[in-house]
């Protein structure tokens, strides 16, 4: 249960989404106009190329202007998830972050109460399974056996806040519609696809695809029901769809959000717990 719970909490909060509708409570899966992620030769004239480059530069600047910056962050949310083997619903999650330092997560199940607590730093992941009285101690490099996805601390931090991840300047395959702008870009390990709303350039959906096709691994992130806050617009509804041999679907609903307020990060391992 512990590995499933941690994968749910961390992957669910940090990964990429499955469904989205901007104003409706219902989140429904959308498609990416950017279906071809190969770099194709551009046969347009120099004026068209220059105009396209200018648009791409301005688009990236507008998208990055929506980044949320913070010192501390805390939130309460409800999480449901589904795999091929099981479903869990109504998980209550408390989440707290000290920027660039600590991510603290507590998960509670209906009736049972708190079942897991985790602390993630740039170097380590520590977690306790209160139900089975087990403590898990991992260096970040070894945490993939629990989370099943590669990440670093800053990427995890951005995913929780809702900032774009694996966004680079290598923009291509731009598709513009009156409502949505879609594009692809490359990082070292991944190809990333983005749908951003054309009026204010906030994220509607993103998809991260492993460049190593033998892994057949991807994660989709979708964002909905944005709430305007002092720090910017925050997506209070998200869904995640992870494909890596098997699938995981996760739905999240944030119901309390605070920025730059004092936070506590209690974590201790009872002496009676076994350690793995």
TrEMBL record:
Pfam families per UniProt: DUF4292
PROSITE patterns for this protein: PROKAR_LIPOPROTEIN
InterPro entries hit by this protein: DUF4292
Listed name of the protein: DUF4292 domain-containing protein
The organism of origin for this protein: Chitinophaga rhizophila
């Amino acid at each position: 249960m512990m590995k499933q719970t941690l994968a749910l909490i961390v992957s669910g909060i940090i990964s990429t989404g499955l469904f989205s509708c901007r104003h409706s409570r219902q989140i429904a899966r959308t498609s990416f106009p950017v279906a071809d992620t190969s770099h194709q030769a551009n046969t347009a004239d120099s004026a068209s190329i220059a105009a396209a480059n200018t648009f791409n530069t301005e688009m990236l600047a507008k998208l990055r202007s929506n980044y949320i910056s913070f010192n501390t962050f805390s939130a309460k949310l409800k999480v449901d998830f589904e795999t091929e083997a099981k479903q869990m619903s109504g998980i209550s999650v408390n989440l707290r972050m000290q920027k660039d330092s600590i991510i603290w997560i507590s998960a509670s199940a209906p009736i049972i109460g708190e079942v897991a607590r985790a602390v993630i730093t740039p170097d380590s992941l520590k977690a306790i399974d209160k139900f089975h009285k087990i403590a898990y101690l991992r260096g970040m490099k070894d945490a993939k056996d629990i989370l099943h996805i590669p990440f670093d601390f800053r990427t995890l931090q951005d995913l929780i806040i809702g900032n774009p991840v694996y966004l680079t300047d290598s923009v291509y395959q731009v598709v513009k519609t009156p409502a949505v702008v879609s594009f692809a870009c490359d990082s070292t390990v991944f190809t990333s696809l983005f749908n951003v709303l054309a009026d204010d350039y906030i994220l509607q959906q993103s998809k991260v695809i492993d460049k190593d096709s033998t892994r057949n691994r991807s994660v989709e992130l979708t964002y909905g029901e944005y709430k305007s806050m002092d720090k910017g617009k925050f997506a209070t509804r998200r869904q995640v769809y992870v494909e890596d041999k098997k699938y995981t679907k996760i739905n999240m609903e944030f119901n309390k959000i605070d920025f730059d307020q004092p936070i506590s990060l209690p974590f201790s391992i009872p002496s009676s717990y076994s350690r793995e």
